[in-house]
């Protein structure tokens, strides 16, 4: 399986990230989902980058934590090959959430990657039943890759 990783823009204000660890956790999540032969594009960006995508594709202003662009829906899905789609994480927003929740940034990034991957595969959380199922799957995948949602550290 391939996880194509694009690190954050060179910006001294953005925190440093263990890209290797994040790729390993994304690969672990894909394997646990039965997608060990799939490909994933994982990008970290700054507030401006994620805000632009959020406005363009969701019509919502400002930065968000994670956006998913699935290749399972829309035109030309038959040409996607092994690529599931793109997960874009707002690094500065992830860092703020990690601090507020007293979690390590690496753990927060892994959680957001898992959340984004589940969206790529069709999970949603708009309705209460969907949200319950998605949270349960997130918990299962966090355990599969060796992280818990709460607590500090990696």
Give a written overview of the molecule:
By secondary structure, the protein is an alpha/beta fold. The chain has one domain: Metalloproteases ("zincins"), catalytic domain (Collagenase (Catalytic Domain)), CATH 3.40.390.30. 45% of the residues lie in helices and 16% in strands. It has 5 helices and 4 strands. A 4-stranded mixed beta sheet has the order 1-2-4-3, sandwiched between helices.
Kindly summarize this structure in a few lines:
This protein is of the alpha/beta class.
Question: How is this fold's topology laid out?
Answer:
Elements: E1 2-6, H1 19-32, E2 39-45, H2 47-58, E3 66-70, E4 83-90, H3 91-100, H4 105-120, H5 128-144
Parallel strand pairs: 1-2, 2-4
Antiparallel strand pairs: 3-4
Helix pairs in contact: 1-4, 3-4, 4-5
Beginning-to-end CA distance, first to last residue: 23 Å
Largest sheet: 4 strands, mixed
- What is the C-alpha radius of gyration, as a whole number of Å? 15 Å
For this structure, the CATH topology is: Collagenase (Catalytic Domain)
Q: Give me the CATH superfamily.
A: Metalloproteases ("zincins"), catalytic domain
Report mean pLDDT, rounded to a whole number: 87
**Helix percentage:** 40-55%
What is the helix/strand order?
EHEHEEHHH
Strand order of the largest sheet: 1-2-4-3
Helix/strand structural class:
alpha/beta
Number of helices in the DSSP assignment: 5
The CATH architecture designation is: 3-Layer(aba) Sandwich
Strand residue content: 15-25%
List low-confidence stretches: none
């Amino acid at each position: 399986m391939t996880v194509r990783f694009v690190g954050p823009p060179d910006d001294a204000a953005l925190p440093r990230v263990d890209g290797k660890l994040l790729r390993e956790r994304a690969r672990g999540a894909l394997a646990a989902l039965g997608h060990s032969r799939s490909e994933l594009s994982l990008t970290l960006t700054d507030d401006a980058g994620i805000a632009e995508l959020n406005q363009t594709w969701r019509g919502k202003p400002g930065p968000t934590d994670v956006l998913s662009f699935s290749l399972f829906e829309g035109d030309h899905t038959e040409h996607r090959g092994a690529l599931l789609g793109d997960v874009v994480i707002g690094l500065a927003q992830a860092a703020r959430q990690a601090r507020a929740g007293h979690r390590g940034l690496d753990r927060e990034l892994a959680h957001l990657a898992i959340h984004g991957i589940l969206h790529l595969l069709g999970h949603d959380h708009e309705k209460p039943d969907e949200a319950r199922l998605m949270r349960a799957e997130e918990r299962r995948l966090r355990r599969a890759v060796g992280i818990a949602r709460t607590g500090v550290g990696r």
